[in-house]
């Protein structure tokens, strides 16, 4: 059985809580990702997504010089490297999350995105299920 350690992305680009929203946006652009973990001394403090920047910064008319700590999500669902890929897929579907930070002893060691589940050999069904559960209901699309 595959574990998250087998499929997670390591060497994840991060920001510090005092980094600006602009800094996070530039890192997202340069690394082609939609989320950046916020860490202090390798400890996971939160996560900022491209959606957070739009909804909590731009739409609230905050300056792009605001610290990421002002708009990051703090109550994160996390996993450990030893968690099975199947269990992670179920959890991501149940909790409606697309990116799962992987921590060991409170320190960020990697991240698993929904797309990582689809790449796994035995997880195509789980990835499909997770995606269908995480995707927005049709009636909320405009």
UniProtKB/TrEMBL annotation:
Keywords, sorted A to Z: CBS domain
Q: Which SUPFAM superfamilies match?
A: CBS-domain pair
CDD domains found in the cross-reference section = CBS_pair_HRP1_like
Q: Does Repeat appear among the keywords?
A: no
What is a single Pfam family found in this protein's UniProt entry? CBS
Under PROSITE patterns, the record lists:
CBS
The record, for InterPro entries, names: CBS_dom, CBS_dom_sf, Diverse_CBS-Domain
User: Could you tell me which residue ranges the CBS domain spans?
Assistant: 8-68, 72-128
Question: Any idea what this protein is called?
Answer: CBS domain-containing protein
**Source organism of the structure:** Thalassorhabdus alkalitolerans
